[in-house]
Write a structure and sequence with these properties.
Length: about 140
């Protein structure tokens, strides 16, 4: 997003355990990614980061107005991503793409397929006739 303050991106070597170092855990006690710092604030958890950034930069229109039905759908899809989709999508991706062949476990992928299929059956109709989850404009929910 243009107009943000100077930012630095740090690549975290998950397969080497960089997210479990004392320095990293001091910022994100759960030892996961992502987190970011904004001034004195350290924000972790994807939902919190999305909500924070949408509120911090209202001119970017990442969130619909507080009044109206679109805001309810916005919250719903952000929470759905974290609560329903993140684990099966991330685990499937790791066991199909990221991990070395010898560490991949097909049973993990198979375990998540029904959850992903059910979630996608709910998500897909919400996109019919729209470019984005909330309509024709990109939001933090996307």
């Amino acid at each position: 997003l243009e107009g943000w303050a100077r930012r630095t991106f740090v690549h975290v070597e998950l397969l080497k355990g960089a997210h479990k170092s004392p320095e990293y855990l001091a910022k994100y006690p759960h030892g996961r990614v992502p987190y970011f710092e904004s001034g004195a604030n350290v924000v972790f958890e994807s939902c919190a980061a999305l909500l924070y950034l949408a509120d911090k930069f209202p001119e970017k229109k990442l969130a619909p107005p507080a009044e109206g039905g679109a805001r309810a759908a916005y919250y719903q899809w952000i929470v759905c991503a974290a609560a329903t989709l993140d684990k099966p999508v991330i685990d499937t991706y790791f066991h199909k793409v990221v991990l070395p062949e010898e560490k991949r476990r097909p049973e993990v992928v198979a375990e998540h397929q029904p959850v992903l299929a059910a979630a996608l059956r709910i998500l897909e109709p919400s996109l019919v006739g729209k470019s984005y989850l909330l309509g024709e404009s990109f939001s933090a929910a996307d």
